[in-house]
Write a structure and sequence with these properties.
- Among the domains are: 108 residues, Immunoglobulin-like; 108 residues, no CATH class.
- The chain is 48% helix and 20% strand.
- The chain contains ten helices and ten strands.
- The protein has a four-stranded antiparallel sheet with strand order 1-3-6-5, with no helix packed on it. A three-stranded mixed sheet has the order 2-10-7. A three-stranded antiparallel sheet has the order 4-8-9, with no helix packed on it.
- A hairpin with a 6-residue loop joins strand 8 and strand 9.
């Protein structure tokens, strides 16, 4: 009796072990006889975004069979974007999903598109690869000002001045002009009695280097003043560009300056790319409350220093002429 019960329990245990395996093989055999149905789609997770905002681009393959997939190389298709993260996964048994995703961002406003691409696939029992096309997708990148619609720093124009008010301005202007003429005549009359001393004006890169050293002495990073640090670092580079290349960088927005810098022939493509990445990174810290780590802070400082080093022009001091020496001897 005991042996019969043991035999019965043994049969139950064996059934529980082998029944799932048998069901799996039946499913595999049935799926092998099914006709392969496959669809491929691509999409963004949103239609509009602002500069610097992260966007998710997804490629999804749906099929009723287990297949091998070769996703396309999107390095050329994503030329307008920067890839921050990417990954892939698959799900499902009867209805399988193969997904590859990318986290992107861009700092160029306007309409951007990712064109169609080709995906290769084949069933496990096939030796020849098949192809399927994924659709193109579009997204509109907006400026942060366009999204917020806030122009609180722009004040309305003043109303018209009264004639009496305007006449007083004319009188003040004439008096000011007369004062300037008198001052210039006084300077001109005294010029022969002044000893001329050469003034050695610092070059654009020397002033920039001094400003960088002064920024280091302020020790903003240790005090946690990251935004103030980036404001001054950005100003140092903008004033250097104004003094070195006559670009009115301090008076322009980042977007306006990048358009202007793109047109100049005095900078190489690599130098323009360094400028673009640095200024957009500064805007993220100053306006989007982005918190850079220590490595990014040091990299930003080194980017400015290396840009100045690569574009600086040394000023050669002119030797003193014989006429200047005679004039100095007369004064003595």
């Amino acid at each position: 009796m005991v042996m019969r019960d043991n035999l019965r329990w043994s049969l139950v245990v064996i059934s529980l072990i082998f029944l799932p395996i048998l069901i799996y093989f039946v499913i595999v055999m049935l799926s092998g006889k099914q006709h392969l149905n496959i669809t491929a789609t691509a999409e963004f997770n949103k239609d509009h975004a602002t500069i610097g905002e992260r966007i998710k681009y997804t490629i999804e393959i749906r099929t009723n069979k287990e297949i091998d997939i070769r996703f396309p190389d999107l390095s050329k298709n994503l030329i307008d974007f920067t890839i921050k993260e990417f990954g892939s996964f698959k799900k499902g048994i009867f209805q399988r999903r193969y997904v590859q995703w990318y986290i992107l961002d861009t700092y160029t406003i306007g309409r951007h598109s990712i064109p169609e691409a080709t995906i290769q696939y084949k069933e496990k029992r096939w030796s020849q690869w098949q192809e399927i096309e994924i659709n193109s997708v579009e997204i509109v990148i907006q400026s942060m000002l366009e999204k917020t619609g806030s122009y609180s720093d722009i004040k309305d124009i003043k109303g018209p001045c009264s004639p009496a008010h305007r006449f007083s301005f004319y009188i003040l202007g004439v008096l000011f002009f007369i004062a300037i003429v008198i001052f210039c005549l006084w300077i001109f009359s005294k010029r022969n009695r002044l000893i001329k001393t050469p003034i050695l004006q610092k070059s654009a890169h020397q002033r920039a280097y001094d400003a960088l050293q002064e920024l280091k002495r302020k020790d903003y990073i240790r005090q946690g003043k990251i935004k103030e640090y980036y404001v001054e670092l950005s100003d140092i580079l903008r004033h250097y560009l104004e003094n070195r290349f006559n670009l009115r960088a301090p008076e322009m927005t980042t977007e306006e300056f990048l358009v202007k810098a793109k047109e100049t022939k005095e900078l190489t493509c690599i130098q323009k790319d360094i400028l673009k990445k640095f200024l957009l990174h500064c805007d993220l810290v100053k306006f989007a409350k982005y918190g850079p780590d220590e490595a990014e802070i040091n990299s930003s400082y080194e980017s400015v220093r290396m840009f100045i080093e690569q574009t600086k022009i040394e000023i050669v001091e002119q030797p003193q002429t014989g006429t200047d020496i005679k004039e100095e001897n007369k004064i003595k």
